[in-house]
Amino acid sequence: MSVKAKLHYFNGRGRMETIRWLLAVAGVEFEEYFFETREELIKLQQSGVLLFQQVPLVEIDGMNMVQTRAILNYIAAKHNLYGKHLKERALIDMYVEATMDLNDLVMCHPMQPPEGREKNLALIVDKATNRYFPAYEKVILKDHGQDYLVGNQFSRADVQVPETILMMEEMKPDILAKFPLLQGFKARISNNPTIKKFLQPGSQRKSEIEEKMIPQVMKIF
Amino acid sequence: MEFTELESSLREQAIRSSLMAGKPKLYYFNGRGRMESIRWLLAAAGIEFVEEFLETREQYEKLLQDGALLFQQVPMVEIDGMKMVQTRAILGYIAAKHNLYGKDLKERALIDMYVEGTRDLIDLIRVHHKFSPEEQEKNLALINERATARYFPVYEKVLKDHGTEFLVGNQLTWADVQLIEAILMVEEKVSTVLSKFPLLQDFKTRICNIPTIKKFLQPGSQRKPPPDESYVVTANRVFNRK
User: Fold this and answer.
1) Are the beta carbons of B89 and A77 separated by less than 8 Å?
2) Where's the GST C-terminal domain (chain A) (predicted)?
3) Which letter does DSSP use for residue A200 in this model?
4) Residues of chain A with CATH 1.20.1050.10
5) Which end of chain B has the smaller Cβ count within 10 Å, N or C?
């Protein structure tokens, strides 16, 4: 099978991870080019492929795409993961924008100085359990009987919300304790064949960043 | 009240609310913040809108209690029977609905890349007033650097390579509207910022002459001024921030 996309990033989750999830679920094979030093990133910047000098960069369908949301929107629209019409798209966008807000907090957490970690963790857990998860729990309650968050069909929202849930569970294993419907949703979605495959060892899913790698990664950027 | 008076009052109310039903309603502070890009896009599309300004904590708590804010946050826009939140979701909906999002997937991809770029630049300016004077000096240098070394060269080149009036395709899109918004915001801070970008200067003149945008730029429009002290005070009060 030919490779359909090339990803340029460091060997970790960061802003690329949601893109990996969506490509995997869409069944798009991708190759990854990891840079490990600041020099390698500078080389990429000098080559002119980075529109705003930033990564993620995804080479796809003849384009050098940058900007995480632009890339995600393109993959979702192309692979029928963006709803059937404008209003479904609007709902999907609302739900995924919120997960991205939460993801940003998770992504920045390792960069907190050790003294601030505990407080920051409490903040993230508070936002997840008091702001975001109650909203999704209510969505599932309202659409009771449907397997998906929007329009009774699989969409990027059903990828991005579980992705965020799993990352939150790494931070606090019982984070879904008060959200039975989200537990059910997560279990159902995890059984989706492409997602199941992506969750297995050996897939292109990346693990949490190791503590000792953080200084190195920060040096790159 | 006499029966006929009641009847005509109800009829009046019904007419008024059906006239209003078409207009989006914006819930935010009386200031730019995250809502300003939405005002720009609605105005550029020629869509009339009404605004409810948050001034007290009680207003905010009522919105929360009514379940009007999906994630307890503003901006919120009532539009087409939805209570939309999340700035990008709202902008994407307006752009798609009003033919400002390109004609196909690839144009959409370009528009998305460009608006994400201008969004980053606008966000640098959006938070500027929250900083101390020393931090503001640093932030100003950063805004200038990013505008002149990272973002404006890209759009100058796009206009050069593309050879048409607009950034994407042959008609006005969300990308053009957000770029003009960004240019004007940076110029408020660095008045000479376009000095090395002749095509962007032409772009600015052209886009500002589009009738809907020209109207939005006139005094008395719903465009908001840059944030001042009272804006900060109000936001802190509404969100119970120290």
Assistant:
1) no
2) 85-209
3) S
4) 86-191
5) C
Minimum Cα–Cα distance from B72: chain A residue: A131
Are A16 and A22 contacting, i.e. CB atoms less than 8 angstroms apart?
no
Query: Which regions of B35-179 does DSSP assign to beta strands (E)?
Result: 50-53, 76-79, 82-85
Rg (alpha carbons) of chain A, rounded to whole number: 18
Name A59's bridge partners.
Answer: A6, A64
Whether residue B28 contacts residue B74, with contact meaning beta carbons closer than 8 Å, is answered with yes
Please list the residues that pair with B51 across neighbouring strands: B26
Choosing among 3.40.50.280, 3.40.50.2000, 3.40.30.10, 3.40.50.2300, the CATH entry for A5-79+199-220 is 3.40.30.10
CB contact under 8 A, B112 and A53: no
Task: Give the distance from residue B130's alpha carbon to the nearest chain A alpha carbon, in angstroms.
Answer: 20
Residues in A touching B106 (Cβ below 8 Å): 61, 63
The minimum CA-CA distance between A97 and chain B, rounded to whole Å, is: 7
Chain A residues with a Cβ under 8 Å from any Cβ in chain B: 51-53, 61, 63, 65-70, 73-74, 77-78, 86-87, 89-90, 93-94, 97-98, 101, 131-132, 135
pLDDT tens-digit profile, chain B (242 residues): 455 666 666 666 666 655 556 899 999 999 999 999 999 999 999 999 999 999 999 999 999 999 999 999 999 999 999 999 999 999 999 999 999 999 999 999 999 999 999 999 999 999 999 899 999 999 999 999 999 999 999 999 999 999 889 999 999 999 999 999 999 999 999 999 999 999 999 999 999 999 999 999 999 999 999 998 888 889 889 888 76
Which pLDDT tens digit goes with each residue over A60-90? Answer: 999 999 999 999 999 999 999 999 999 999 9
Residues of chain A with CATH 3.40.30.10: 5-79+199-220
Cβ B112–A70 below 8 Å, yes or no?
yes
CA distance A138 to A218: 38
ipTM: 0.96
Nearest chain A Cα to B115, which residue? A70
Q: Which residues on B lie below 8 Å from A77 (Cβ)?
A: 105, 108
At A7-19, the pLDDT tens digits run: 999 999 999 999 9
Q: A55: closest CA among A103, A24, A16?
A: A16
Instruction: Starting at the earlier edge strand, list the strands of the sheet with A5-9.
Output: A30-34, A5-9, A57-60, A63-66
Determine the pLDDT at residue B175: 98
